[in-house]
Design a protein that fits this description.
This protein has three helices and eight strands, in the order βββαββββαβα. The protein is of the alpha+beta class. The strands form two sheets. A five-stranded antiparallel β-sheet has the order 1-4-7-2-8, with helices on one face.
């Protein structure tokens, strides 16, 4: 069975039964927790100091599924990297899908009803996650410089067709409102170490090459000297024989 439309889960009217007890599993509201489909929450360059902040804001109370959050993250990141580059921005996803979605299996065929019987409203099985978002809440924030404001706004509006609610973009200069940022990215540090190691290896190769050339030159000089000495000895022998 394929993925159901987002409108089936957008309502926030129902109560959020999504508690997962870590220590006492008997107090769980649900039996299992589906994995989070949103893979990253921080992208770009967190070290650079930017001048402007752009926020994608929701205009109504709604639930957003984790696959929808992942879709807007990929779309925004792909669009802004084309213009600003990988180090010309910093993006942060401001929501996390805590709510566990449940679904009752449906019987196929004409006049089909629920498979379960004996309960008017069965609880259902966990099928995914969603974030419960209130009106005016920020979903995604981007830090950029002044020359990339229009590009960032265009990238944020790429998320509009992938959401089940209306959204708009706010532009400001108080970049501290984005909250905490990662100090350094481990991947970047590993790449820098690899680059430094490659540079040292290249320098060592160059030094070894120079030393090898010097050794070759010294060997050729010695050979030339030996040849000259042999030629001199041969001439002396010839002269002595003639006498």
């Amino acid at each position: 069975m394929g993925l159901r439309p987002g409108r089936c889960y957008r309502s926030r009217k129902k109560r959020a039964f999504s508690r997962v007890a870590v220590t006492v599993h008997k107090k769980n509201y649900i039996g299992s927790t589906p994995f989070v489909r949103t893979r990253q929450f921080n992208m770009g360059n967190p070290i650079k100091e930017f001048t402007h902040i752009l926020d994608l804001v929701v205009d109504e109370d709604v639930q957003l599924r984790d696959n929808s959050i992942e879709a807007i993250r990929v779309a925004i990141n792909r669009e802004i990297v084309k213009i600003a580059g990988k180090d010309g921005f910093f993006m942060k996803v401001r929501i996390y899908p805590y709510q566990i979605l449940r679904e009752n299996k449906q019987a196929q065929g004409a006049g089909a009803d629920r498979v379960t019987k004996g309960m008017s409203h069965p609880y259902g099985k966990p099928i995914g996650r969603a974030a419960r978002v209130r009106k005016g809440q920020k979903i995604v924030s981007i830090l950029v410089d002044e020359e990339h404001i229009e590009a960032a706004k265009k990238a944020l509006m790429k998320a509009k067709p992938k959401l089940t609610s209306k959204v708009h973009v706010n532009i400001g200069t108080d970049v501290k409102l984005i909250g905490t940022k990662p100090r350094k990215i481990k991947v970047v540090e590993a790449e820098k170490k690899e680059e430094a190691e490659e540079e040292t290896k290249e320098e060592e190769k160059k030094v070894e090459g120079k030393e090898g050339e010097e050794k070759k030159e010294s060997k050729t000089d010695k050979k030339a000297e030996l040849k000259k000495e042999l030629q001199k000895e041969k001439l002396k022998e010839k002269l002595s024989g003639e006498k």
